[in-house]
Design goal:
By secondary structure, this protein is an alpha/beta fold. It is 31% helix and 24% strand. It is built from 10 helices and 20 strands. It has helices at 10-21, 60-69, 83-94, 98-125, 144-158, 169-175, 200-213, 257-261, 330-339, 384-399, and strands at residues 2-6, 25-29, 46-47, 75-76, 137-141, 165-167, 188-192, 196-197, 217-219, 224-230, 233-239, 242-244, 248-251, 271-281, 293-295, 300-305, 308-316, 350-358, 365-368, 374-378. Strands 4, 5, 6, 7, 14, 15, 16, 17 and 18 form a 9-stranded mixed β-sheet that branches. A hairpin with a 2-residue loop joins strand 10 and strand 11. Helix 1 (10-21) packs parallel to helix 10 (384-399) and helix 4 crosses helix 10 (384-399). It is globular, with a radius of gyration of 21 Å. Bound molecules: flavin-adenine dinucleotide. Flavin-adenine dinucleotide binds at residues 7-12, 29-32, 37-40, 43-46, 48, 223-224, 252-254, 256, 275, 277, 301, 312, 354, 356-357, 378, 380-386.
Length: 416
């Protein structure tokens, strides 16, 4: 079967690879001149089932409310005249019960754990190097009460396949000697020994090369204008460089998926939530982290990606705006200097901002929809790097009419 994958981010490229490995003839369409140039370009790099908690939680409504009048660097919830944002927010609030938070978190957890296994298989199969560090991740707490909440939440994950450990400051320093100078700042941490880190963009680029080896054709610089349909079938994709037709199509356009799906009568409640990242050269500096983690008090994530230090932060409700200025990064750089003061060339930052394709409940949207030859693989939100391989394999299974290894209940578009 000839399949067109719409989108060459980590989700689209991983899906294309899995489809081609199944023997399909695959083309990937993307508007950029290379793969992985938008949200997959500079994320935190954490492969983090241990940080999978659904954002919609009983505490979230108050946190959103407070951020309306506080100048918060972690969360910038702004009331905008945007009906899609209001509709998304109402659905988000409906998911803020204890029961829904638990169900959504556990659904995401099983997908992340499955994905980690598939990622390992792909890594072996395609001999991929992507600055991977597989020594676990540290979730750092500065405050005792906050740590206790983290420990209480951890039980839900540990009862369902994780092996998270609550650790004291001495153990933090054993695991991350470069935090020795900051030991007194921590109440403790949660250590996720099986979590990992690695460069998502490098992975995407190298998997694309492996995909070409399986016959995948990348049609870059193709801006998708509309998806053309007749009845319940897609007839072609209209792009800036002409029409592209295939037997089947996979929608993997991240935050832009709902815009192109809507004219087909498919309403995807995916909203862009902007995040910021900064990358610093480590070069011959000493004191860079040896494993990645998150400063839970400031919600700053960090990872060492080879000879670079990557930091990310902030959930900003700014619509499709991806602009930034140096002030957007001041908070996360302060945290980095506090944790790893000598780690990198702090005077040579590379800034980036991009959009998390967030569903209001948390899990992505996978599989079939009302258009018979269209498959969905989108809405991975804050966990798209962690979930990519699992989602790709599931969608390839559905295309092949094979039962996926994971129950997809709660992952399809029918839930909305
Ligand atoms: C600050 C930040 C930190 C993050 N940290 C992590 C992390 O540590 N771990 C983790 O698991 N996840 C993380 N994420 C989430 C993860 O990066 C995303 O979920 C993932 O990159 C989404 O991949 P995607 O392929 O769906 O989207 P994208 O990478 O955005 O790909 C979509 C592609 O579609 C193309 N496209 C869009 N519209 C069109 C069009 N009209 N025509 C043609 N092409 C089009 C784009 O060019 C793009 O290449 C983070 C996200 C952010 C913002």
């Amino acid at each position: 079967m000839r399949i067109a994958v719409l989108g060459g981010g980590v989700i689209g490229v991983t899906t294309a690879y899995c489809l081609a490995a199944d023997g399909h003839e695959v083309v990937v369409l993307d508007r950029q001149n290379a793969v992985g140039q938008e949200t997959s370009f500079a994320n935190a790099g954490l492969i983090a089932p241990g940080h999978v908690y659904a954002w919609a939680s009983p505490k979230a409504p108050l946190i959103l409310l407070k951020s309306l009048y506080r100048d918060d660097t972690a969360l910038r919830f702004r009331l905008r005249a945007d009906p899609r944002m209001w509709a998304w927010s109402l659905r988000f609030l409906a998911n803020c019960t204890t029961a829904r938070n638990r169900a959504n978190t556990l659904r995401k957890l099983s997908l992340c754990l499955y994905s980690q296994k598939v990622l390992d298989e792909l890594r072996g199969e395609a001999a991929l190097e992507f600055d991977r560090i597989a020594s676990g991740l540290l979730y750092l707490y500065r405050d005792r009460a906050h740590l206790q909440t983290g420990i209480a939440n951890m039980a839900m994950l540990n009862d369902n396949g994780m092996a998270l450990q609550a650790i004291d400051p001495d153990r933090i320093v054993e695991l991350e000697p470069n935090l020795a100078h900051a030991k007194s700042k921590f109440a403790g941490a949660i250590y996720a020994p099986t979590d990992e880190s690695g460069d998502c963009q490098t992975f995407t680029e190298r998997l694309a090369v492996a995909a070409v080896g399986h016959g995948v054709v990348f049609m870059l610089d193709h801006d998708i204008r509309t998806i053309e349909a007749a009845g319940d079938r897609i007839t072609g994709i209209s792009t800036s460089k002409g029409k592209v037709a295939a037997d089947a199509y996979v929608l993997a356009l991240g935050s832009y998926s709902p815009l192109l799906a809507r004219p087909l009568g498919i309403k995807l409640p995916i909203y862009p939530i902007k995040g910021y990242s900064v990358t610093l050269p480590i070069e011959d500096h000493h004191g860079a982290p040896t494993i990645g983690g998150v400063d839970e008090a400031n919600l700053v994530a960090y990872a060492r990606l080879g000879n670079r230090l990557r930091l990310t932060a902030t959930a900003d409700f700014a619509g499709y705006d991806t602009d930034y200025d140096a002030g957007d990064f001041a908070g996360m750089l302060r945290v980095a200097l506090d944790l790893f003061p000598t780690a990198a060339a702090y005077d040579r930052p590379s800034y980036w901002a991009c959009l998390r394709p967030m569903t209001p409940d948390g899990p992505p949207v996978l599989g079939r929809c009302r258009i018979k030859n269209l498959y969905l693989n989108t809405g991975q939100g804050h966990m798209g790097w962690t979930m990519a391989a699992g989602c790709a394999r599931i969608v390839a299974d559905i295309v092949a009419d094979r039962p996926p290894a994971l129950d997809i209940q709660g992952l399809t578009v029918d839930r909305y």
